[in-house]
Design a protein that fits this description.
Order of helices and strands of chain A: HHHHHHHHHHHHHHHHHHHHH
Helix content of chain A: over 70%
Radius of gyration of chain B: 11 Å
Oligomer: heterodimer
Shape of chain B: globular
CATH class of chain B: Mainly Alpha
Largest interface: A-B, 25 and 19 residues
Strand content of chain A: under 5%
Largest sheet of chain A: none
Number of helices of chain A: 21
Shape of chain A: globular
Largest sheet of chain B: none
Number of strands of chain B: 0
Strand content of chain B: under 5%
Number of helices of chain B: 4
């Protein structure tokens, strides 16, 4: 323990970004909870802020200045926009009725400028640290020049807290959120340590007030929160990390693998990514609950989806909602888009009419979604792949409906729903293959092999051993997936297992808890022979 | 209100807009239908519906839409 504490006090700690590392779970989180618990009620918010900034400092060193700059900009631009709104209201009230529309227009334009400046400052910072290298590398290749590529270091979570900052400013601009004069509250909203590494991307109205007014730690919140963290720990240690050797081995040694093995690795990667990311989100929700804060959910059983469009309303929900509210609707609700929809609807009908403007907005959303995940052509391809699938789905919907009616197929019947779900999962796996592949070319090569050489006969025990996995690992992963599936099925039917357990006798509750802990201790991937895997969404 | 019902029935003929109270929550109106609807409502009622108004509470029922239209007209 003393060694861990001294480690914590020394230098920057990338291990802390994993909520399931010993340093985080064993030292940082208990220390944060203890500090919060002993701090008097009216100072608790400051304890959370100091802990959050301290966490960022421990992980990212002096890059904490970037976060502090972002907080100040968010707060300052928010106040500027709020001031413009107040000035507008006063001016409109004092003006004659016929002058009001022009006045509103004048202030709207001013607010737009301020919002533009604020967004440029935030997004500009993100673009600089995240995309300069990608841009210059492509310029060098295209023009045959050798421009020096600066090695910017990305502050941890920059892609997440930047979107939170922009959403707050957008909401103030739209008038649905009051500008907050308290820079510390804005700071806590952006920096709350459980959310800063991998999200979720929170809205000001959702968490700022809760964080600022968070009360004492209750026994109920502590136990329920720890249970949720344990469930996430199981997903991460028993499934995600156990699959890592196999996935990594196949994706980095594509040439030696048959297409069937690549397909299996793509499925395993999809499972790994889900267990890793949703496990981390379980930990975030659990930590939030310990501090009395309800964090927005980022996953809602995505693999039960019947269409790709539905999948994205259940996977990384807060990112999808951000793109919908701040890109899709602003683009489709712009003057030219509305005119286009109106005109197209008259010629093309109710279904195809809106698809023109909707398609443009959807393209923008998926371009940004691809780029948000990383500065690489494979991520752009990933975005475009999903854009095409969703758009084709919308184009084909009336035809599918007609064919189903003619053939007497009932889409609500179970076999049809299962077929749709399986198809959606397969399409998702293909997308994830490109997402994980080492570049777009490698992704295409893997996909080609998967289609033209779908064989598994090279799989053998020694080959699996080389990839740091054996049949026993697959069995343990399979059993754990069944556990997660059953819990998901119950959730889908509106049953929250932790709440249901709470009503059971104490002995049963503790038995389940101990069983879960033992399960993780016995079957978790850690110790000699296992390389700890960094949180997979922390680098986006 | 009758004009609103006509527009809605034209856009999505198979929904009973007089009784439905969860058009968005129950996925009876898709985001594409909303695009059509907004364009049509703006033309017909001579109001501007900003993106910020595109929230389930404003589109879950014909009544909610009507209230939103009234409010936007007053504000203009």
């Amino acid at each position: 323990m003393g060694h861990l504490v001294s480690l914590l006090l020394r230098g920057t700690h990338s291990d802390l970004t994993s909520f399931f590392s010993l340093l985080f779970l064993g030292v940082f989180l208990p220390a944060a909870i203890a500090l919060y618990a002993i701090t008097p009620s009216k100072w608790k918010k400051y304890a959370l802020l100091v802990t959050s900034l301290g966490f960022f400092r421990l992980v990212s060193g002096e890059l904490v200045l970037y976060l502090l700059g972002s907080i100040l900009l968010t707060w300052g631009f928010g106040l500027w926009l709020g001031r413009l709104h107040r000035d507008r209201d006063a001016a409109v009230k004092a003006a004659a009725r016929e002058d009001r529309k022009a006045l509103k227009r004048k202030f709207l334009l001013r607010s737009r400028w301020v919002l533009g400046l604020a967004a440029a400052a935030h997004i500009g910072g993100l673009l600089t640290v995240k995309y300069t290298g990608f841009f210059l590398r492509n310029v060098n290749t295209l023009l045959g020049v050798e421009l020096p590529i600066p090695g910017f270091v990305m502050p941890i979570g920059v892609s997440f807290f930047t979107l939170q900052a922009v959403s707050y400013l957008f909401d103030v601009y739209r008038g649905v959120q009051e500008a907050d004069g308290n820079v510390l509250r804005v700071g806590l909203f952006l920096s709350f340590f459980p959310q800063i590494v991998e999200g979720p991307i929170c809205r000001y109205s959702e968490t700022a007030g809760q964080l600022w007014n968070a009360g004492g730690i209750t026994w109920r919140n502590l136990t329920l929160g720890l249970q949720r963290i344990l469930f996430g720990l199981m997903k991460k240690l028993v499934v995600a990390d156990r699959l890592n050797g196999f996935v990594d081995g196949v994706f980095t040694g594509v040439d030696a693998c048959q297409g069937g093995v690549i397909a299996l690795a793509a499925v395993c990667y999809t499972v790994q990514l889900y267990m890793d990311f949703s496990g981390a989100m379980d930990a975030v929700a659990g930590m939030g609950q310990i501090f009395g804060v309800t964090m927005p959910e980022n996953f809602r059983r995505p693999f039960f989806s019947r269409t790709i469009s539905e999948f994205w309303s259940r996977w990384h929900i807060t990112l999808g909602a951000w793109f919908k509210d701040y890109i899709f609707y602003p683009v489709t609700m712009s003057g030219p888009s509305k005119k286009l929809t109106s005109a197209a609807r008259k010629r093309l009908g109710n279904h195809y009419g809106p698809l023109l403007a909707g398609g443009v907005a959807l393209f923008c959303v998926w371009l940004c979604n691809g780029l948000w995940h990383g500065a690489a052509w494979s991520f752009l391809f990933f975005g475009m792949y999903h854009f095409v699938l969703i758009y084709l789905g919308s184009l084909a919907a009336p035809v599918v409906k007609r064919v189903n009616t003619r053939l007497g197929v009932k889409p609500e019947r179970l076999p049809y729903r299962i077929a749709q779900t399986v198809r959606t999962c397969l399409l998702v796996v293909v997308g994830e293959l490109f997402f994980r592949a080492d570049g777009l070319r490698a992704g295409l090569r893997m996909f080609r092999k998967m289609v033209t050489d779908f064989r598994f006969d090279s799989i053998s025990i020694p080959m699996l051993k080389d990839l740091r996995i054996d049949p026993q690992d697959f069995f343990i992963v399979g059993v754990t997936m069944v556990i997660v599936f059953v819990v998901s099925l119950l959730n889908e039917r509106g049953i929250v297992v932790r709440d249901a357990l709470e009503k059971k006798p104490t002995a049963l509750r503790w038995a389940v808890l101990y069983a879960l802990i033992l399960y993780i201790i016995i079957f978790g991937a850690y110790g000699k022979g296992y390389v700890p895997v960094d949180p997979m969404y922390a680098n986006f | 209100m009758e004009t609103l019902y006509e527009i809605l029935e034209d856009i999505q003929p198979d929904v009973d807009f007089k009784t439905e109270r969860a058009l968005i929550d129950d996925h009876l109106l898709s985001s594409l239908s909303i695009l059509s609807l907004v364009a049509e409502l703006e033309d017909e009622f001579d109001v501007t519906i900003p993106a910020v108004e595109i929230i389930p509470a404003n589109f879950n029922s014909a009544e909610a839409m009507w209230k939103m239209l009234q409010r936007l007209r007053e504000e203009e």
